[in-house]
Amino acid sequence: MQTDSMDVLLQKVKEGKITIEEAKTKLSLFEDMGFAKVDSNRESRTGFPEVVYGEGKSAGQIIEIMKALQLKTNRVLATRINESKAGLIMESIPDLIYNEEARTLYWRHEEETEFLFDGYVCVVCAGTSDLAVAEEAAVTAEAFGSPVKRFYDVGVAGIHRLFYFLEDIKKAKATVVVAGMEGALASVVGGLINNPIVAVPTSVGYGANFQGMAALLSMLNSCSPGISTVNIDNGFGAGYYVSLIHKNQSNQE
Amino acid sequence: MQTDSMDVLLQKVKEGKITIEEAKTKLSLFEDMGFAKVDSNRESRTGFPEVVYGEGKSAGQIIEIMKALQLKTNRVLATRINESKAGLIMESIPDLIYNEEARTLYWRHEEETEFLFDGYVCVVCAGTSDLAVAEEAAVTAEAFGSPVKRFYDVGVAGIHRLFYFLEDIKKAKATVVVAGMEGALASVVGGLINNPIVAVPTSVGYGANFQGMAALLSMLNSCSPGISTVNIDNGFGAGYYVSLIHKNQSNQE
Amino acid sequence: MQTDSMDVLLQKVKEGKITIEEAKTKLSLFEDMGFAKVDSNRESRTGFPEVVYGEGKSAGQIIEIMKALQLKTNRVLATRINESKAGLIMESIPDLIYNEEARTLYWRHEEETEFLFDGYVCVVCAGTSDLAVAEEAAVTAEAFGSPVKRFYDVGVAGIHRLFYFLEDIKKAKATVVVAGMEGALASVVGGLINNPIVAVPTSVGYGANFQGMAALLSMLNSCSPGISTVNIDNGFGAGYYVSLIHKNQSNQE
Amino acid sequence: MQTDSMDVLLQKVKEGKITIEEAKTKLSLFEDMGFAKVDSNRESRTGFPEVVYGEGKSAGQIIEIMKALQLKTNRVLATRINESKAGLIMESIPDLIYNEEARTLYWRHEEETEFLFDGYVCVVCAGTSDLAVAEEAAVTAEAFGSPVKRFYDVGVAGIHRLFYFLEDIKKAKATVVVAGMEGALASVVGGLINNPIVAVPTSVGYGANFQGMAALLSMLNSCSPGISTVNIDNGFGAGYYVSLIHKNQSNQE
Amino acid sequence: MQTDSMDVLLQKVKEGKITIEEAKTKLSLFEDMGFAKVDSNRESRTGFPEVVYGEGKSAGQIIEIMKALQLKTNRVLATRINESKAGLIMESIPDLIYNEEARTLYWRHEEETEFLFDGYVCVVCAGTSDLAVAEEAAVTAEAFGSPVKRFYDVGVAGIHRLFYFLEDIKKAKATVVVAGMEGALASVVGGLINNPIVAVPTSVGYGANFQGMAALLSMLNSCSPGISTVNIDNGFGAGYYVSLIHKNQSNQE
Amino acid sequence: MQTDSMDVLLQKVKEGKITIEEAKTKLSLFEDMGFAKVDSNRESRTGFPEVVYGEGKSAGQIIEIMKALQLKTNRVLATRINESKAGLIMESIPDLIYNEEARTLYWRHEEETEFLFDGYVCVVCAGTSDLAVAEEAAVTAEAFGSPVKRFYDVGVAGIHRLFYFLEDIKKAKATVVVAGMEGALASVVGGLINNPIVAVPTSVGYGANFQGMAALLSMLNSCSPGISTVNIDNGFGAGYYVSLIHKNQSNQE
Amino acid sequence: MQTDSMDVLLQKVKEGKITIEEAKTKLSLFEDMGFAKVDSNRESRTGFPEVVYGEGKSAGQIIEIMKALQLKTNRVLATRINESKAGLIMESIPDLIYNEEARTLYWRHEEETEFLFDGYVCVVCAGTSDLAVAEEAAVTAEAFGSPVKRFYDVGVAGIHRLFYFLEDIKKAKATVVVAGMEGALASVVGGLINNPIVAVPTSVGYGANFQGMAALLSMLNSCSPGISTVNIDNGFGAGYYVSLIHKNQSNQE
Amino acid sequence: MQTDSMDVLLQKVKEGKITIEEAKTKLSLFEDMGFAKVDSNRESRTGFPEVVYGEGKSAGQIIEIMKALQLKTNRVLATRINESKAGLIMESIPDLIYNEEARTLYWRHEEETEFLFDGYVCVVCAGTSDLAVAEEAAVTAEAFGSPVKRFYDVGVAGIHRLFYFLEDIKKAKATVVVAGMEGALASVVGGLINNPIVAVPTSVGYGANFQGMAALLSMLNSCSPGISTVNIDNGFGAGYYVSLIHKNQSNQE
């Protein structure tokens, strides 16, 4: 609900600039497709356009939603798209970029600049097996205009690999830390840098890992402050979050 | 480890400006009290000085640590301090401010400015029972220099209360959302604003709430992006985090 | 056990109107098929006939049970029927309607009216991925004679979509709210309407969702009253329940 | 948000009958007490006035809230009030009725009728140890105008006790079933009656009961339809719910 | 419900030997005390009289129930009675025996034989800390007429202690094995004897024991057959069960 | 370890009737196949021969073990054998009986009597979907010589079906109750009969059933005594247990 | 069971050097106190004498057991002894040393050497709040003859503190790492040293720590090899384990 | 980070023996392959070279990493390699040994001795189904130079099988105990031997086993000391650990 312009809206009704029906329509800013109600107002409310979560949606549904979004915004991202679905979608929508590792589809209007903000965010990742989640984070942040530096396979079993890259990590605007197994990397990075960390537990591991529960609890209980956490394997959420921090910092300038 | 100045450190050794022993000392920047090793280097590493977590420490131990910190930094915060412990500590250290609701002790050097950054962060809280956690978040953010706006008891059972304050929340630099029970407030706010949200689940509730588990899972699984989560009842962590975002934004300017 | 007519039963025995053996038979009102004992007395006890839960039953078993039920009642519903099983069953039993989304098979006697009660119940659903469960609820309520209004994809990430339809939801006799992920929609609707809500958590989500646990806990702990909950993905149970409320209201008139 | 009168509201603005400021005020119908924002609009939205949840609130806070509610509504209920708190509150507010078993405080305006609806709801309870929760349910339903019949200690270990009262239970408008331990009573009652059942698991039990988890899971997984569930020990929620069903039925007539 | 004599009952009604009212009364064999409905028919149904579970009942309530039971049966047992409650009850009911370790009160009619069956059951217990649960099992079995042999502190850390007593354990009619911590004793005994074992996990332990969960899972997953399990700390249930086996064996003879 | 004959063993050593080496051999009564050590001494220790658990063993391994057992005992049972594995095994070992529902292979020496004990045990089962587990229990009890009566699909949603068969269930020597979903059947049967019940939770259900957890907790927390529980889906364990009770009763006579 | 000397035992029986009765006695090497069976044979079996676990034992019981142990061994340790119990025990047994932090009582025969092995083990501890568990580990290792070096409060939030002491930790024979919260310290140390690590999770933390569950899972899932884990708060187990490694190394020399 | 030679490193910088750039390089001892950063410094830090965890890595990635490791160390081990992946890898790298049961690939330089230490470690395993995990442990220990004795299928259901091999187990330098289901074997062995035990719970089991949780909790809560635990199914971790103990003992000599 475009609550932020309630004043303006009411003012316009009073002044007869818009009819009551028009005012009501303003309150329902979405496109109704039956199976979905695309939120065409989200960018103005939350700073970023709606992102298509591909899991459990058919290629046909995704195509319809992405096309609708292309009319409203210059940057369209879809996540959790497997390869076969991606193929079908790309046949219908030109100029999409598919990232196999991250399982994302991305479209940017040809006149839209690639990067919108100065500086960069970074994505730090503990192990080779966590790459898919790390890439989802990186691609998401890039989709919303943030340059991204990637530091992969720098887990604490060989902590010198992390120290080697520490200076670059410290200069980021915000940092995503991706780790499975015991997720200790988040705490270690948290004790060493001064920009906000978004920790992403991954479901990588076995046995008493419980599909990422071990890393999740580890990150939530970190002894280092300056860390917040998103859902297990939620690379998208973390990439979105650091890009949001990045954007708001840029808006300050 | 002052890894960021490794270059400089090695350069100085080479140039004979410092001895090897001095270099080694630089690598061990803490004060050893036996029961604790106070991290006197943290502010330079992570942007904020060490905070004393009072749970499980005696009044005597806390006094010793706070005094050590007063020599190194201008802002000293201790959390999880119950009333009787607070009394004992305040007898030994003058000029402490005790916040009963938040259970925090705070000291600021007399020459230190109260607020360090422009704008404000805000703390939004679902119910009256979540106040202690919300206050811990607010006091922490203030301790590190952020002005704070509080919006309490605006849970989704009466969602118009939230809408009433929405404009102010949207203008914040970052937002803490504190909620117990089912924690739905975080998702609702997440769909309405464009600054980063740190969600704090509280242990308020009963039965299948499982000491905050319900709210924690709710927040981690939020359908709204732009939300990250800290541990149950971790008001401190959330306040610290939004202040860190606030600080970094200010540094941009 | 037709306990409610125990008086009558005993009276008849005393008056010699029925033999002891007949009386005993009355106490065992079911059809014994070996693998199943179809409860031919359920409609008189609980208001609705037995529904066939298709999971783990063979097509042959389902056919046998549905045919037995067709002799006793005018409305026969089978749930959790996948497409291939449905095909086999429809070859043996004419006039069945298969709903692919809901995975239900439904048969209504040709002389039976479609809708039995005035007014309507409604099914509100958070996301596109929750459709299967929402449809199971809707189809079930319709099977038992309730007109149903559907409001899909109105989750709290774009809460204005819900407000758009609120007037219609408020006029329902009872409301099913279906939501996965964090399930916040139930609480939000609960704070806005005055008819009884049955919340259905779905297993839609990933990571710390734990196959619907997050939404289930969220709904059980809702800060809004007027909400009760059924099992994860139990669209059938919710549709049955609102239709039962609807039926009892109609019986009042 | 009084969304249901949005049309009217906008119409009035257009016609100049109310100012924009007044319209905005309409959107914020609550009383701000700092620590709480009393929802004075709830009765018109959800059918019943706000109920005071006493846990974690001081006697002083409860007094203030109850007094505010007395000005807006004729029936004020507070739950989870222990004996000592109740004493303090009753000193400040006359004419309150305290129910020790249910731990509720209740006030009804002297001109308000005790019961508002015809017929009755019933509360069925498995064991003596579940009485407190059962009474909370019963008192809540009574507070909102429903006559209540109580059937206590009729658990399945001696199932003939249940059958003895079955006729009366079947005639209720809706039924609360309260059970701890394994919660089997809900399923058994569910197979025997035709009015909607709200099951309340209690935390009564030990060992692998896990504070009511066993009964909760049992009720959620009931093989009998016509059962929905509320949180563990949530007698209030169940009483509220059956009274809401009762009220809506009465409104039909 | 005296279902087992349904034939007889109906026959009697037919023959006019009992009235319909009398027949109905037969179906409701309990004593209604308001707060409790004492099951005076249980012994004829299940072989043993009702046992009073003392937890959550007042001394007054227990006295009333025990007195009612004394009129119906020769052996009355109450469990989970703490010392102070026991004192109050013993003031009102003479000839009760209180077992401090087991926290049971027991009464046997003066003309009733102490032991009713030949042979014995045995209670095997892993550690000194499990004694209370073991004693509850032993006292319960004795209360129902079984002689009991006790073998305590024979856990697997010193397995030779178990072997020392093995011959006596093998000669028992049935065996209770009580163990906390990891509960391994049940599996070891299960591989060595040929009478039925009832395993009782206790809540003794700490950390990842989770109040008996470790021992419970261990016993349920035993690699030795011939073991069934009761709830954590449920010494009563195990004692009852082995005495039931013992009784049925005796009835064979 | 043939501990029960330790006396005899030592006596024989002393008397020179067996050598030390022979005595040592007596202590290791198993057949070593490398991948398995078949326990040829189990029947004398525990009353029944070793049963082959087929899960995770190859057809070849099972053949080898079953052949070894055929040399030692007259009754060989293998459980958890899927159809294709069963085919392979039956090609190598003649006279095996495969039960598809129960997934068991059974062999009885041609001179061995089918049933060894008088009377019968019974297997009571809640729903059609629980049949596989119920059959595993029934086949196991038969394998060890117990006649079995089966009562399937008599769950509590239509409790009159249970009452119809109650007399027969009461006359059994011991009773297996198999139930999924909420497992309430065990408690209901437990309140009505006087022979020992072994409850088997099944993994039938969905959502908050958690693969049988709901039924397991329900059975462990039963308010009816006379019930013990085995692992989820452990039909074998329950059949073994009731047959063991049956055997020991017969030995009394 | 002195199984290791079975040969010898049988030989002696054969040679008539001991009687059968004596041989049987050898198989039961414990002291029977009724409430406890003290394992006087443990030192010869497992390398260390039995340790008294004080939780849930009375002062009187502990005194009796310790006195029995003093007759058999030169080093007696009791753990989980609170201060008041310690006082009572020390009145009865002279020369005991009580460690308040570790809550242990220790006695060493006056002629017994304090340390038995060369080199040392070390105990590394993350935070001040973990001290009690760390001390229990340290005291236990010392009780069995290992010199111990302690490095406390060196958690990963200030990882330079750990590096400062790393050389000494690397020279240990084995290392105990004690950590609460997210337990990341174990993984970090595991990546840096080459002696075996025993990780002890502590229950220090709050919220989603779940009484040590977070640290436990973290340690079990460590990405660094060379780490094994004991139960939450089990300082004793860890101290025992490193001392056992230490002892066996010394025996090599 | 080669922290142990920090002194030396700084000394060399001072003396101009290495440049600052070289010193920095020393701090980053890994080979960067993009997707992985192979830890070429691990052997000097932790005593054993890096092991390749095959799960979630492609054959190509594994080949690249193994080849890199072959240049640095004489013993290369890869775990969790399924048969088809193994085939691909063996085509590219000669002289690899694939163990199907353990799913490991192993390479030893032709001039490297097979066994490095005297004596042996042993792997004790409860059931045939646990073989894969047991073999992973055995193969790992052998890979690092320890001779291994295997004792398989000696679970507690037939405990005489364990006693038969006890003397050999007691003579080991360290012992791995592998068990699924209830994991009781660890406790039993723990009470009988005097070398350090590493317990490995396996995910073998069903129902309330919860993929190894039962065995894991059992082992963590063992009543026998001298046991530490690794993750469920972590045969590698256990084999590594006992070999590490073995190595350190050998270094003593």
TrEMBL record, chains A, B, C, D, E, F, G, H:
An annotated GO BP: 'de novo' IMP biosynthetic process
Q: What are the GO MF terms of this UniProt record?
A: hydrolase activity
Top-rank lineage group of the source organism? Bacteria
Q: Which residues form the PurE domain?
A: 119-251
Q: Name one Pfam family in it.
A: AIRC
Q: What is this protein called?
A: 1-(5-phosphoribosyl)-5-amino-4-imidazole-carboxylate carboxylase
The scientific name of the source species is Halobacillus mangrovi
